[in-house]
Amino acid sequence: MLIGIAPWLLIFVIFYVLMIRPQQQRVKQHQAAIAAIKKGDEVVTGGGIRGRVTKVSDDEAEIEISQGVRVRVIKSTLSQVLSGTSKPAND
User: Fold this and answer.
1) Nearest to 65 by CA among 87, 50, 75
2) Do the beta carbons of residue 64 and residue 51 sit within 8 Å?
3) CA count, 13 A, side-chain hemisphere, 48
């Protein structure tokens, strides 16, 4: 019976090590980056809009996507946090 269960157990362990664990680490890193957002950071939303953070609250962030154009987004919809020191290409 043990010989019949061992291959399935081995497959599950390999699947966990190669697929599940790395994904869990990426999710934790993303949540930490979103929680650490501050004014001046450059972010990319889930829809692909890139902008600079102008105000942060508990669950929302205000992003300036163009000069004088600001939108409020839910922080969990942000897909990427870029460095806050980079300059836009058109400035």
Assistant:
1) 50
2) yes
3) 0
Residue 64 CB partners (closer than 8 Å, separation 6+) = 51, 52, 53, 54, 70
The alpha helices in 1-91, defined as continuous H runs, are 2-15, 21-35
Q: How many secondary structure helices (H) and strands (E) does the chain include?
A: 2, 5
> Exposure pattern of 63-74 as b/e (b: 16+ CB <10 Å)?
beeeeeeeeebe
CA distances from 24 to 35, 41, 44, 59, 81 (A): 17, 25, 21, 22, 18
pTM of the model: 0.71
And the tokens for 51? Answer: 């902008």
pLDDT tens for the chain, residues 1 to 91: 778 899 999 999 999 999 999 999 999 999 999 999 999 999 999 999 999 999 999 999 999 999 999 999 999 999 999 875 555 555 5
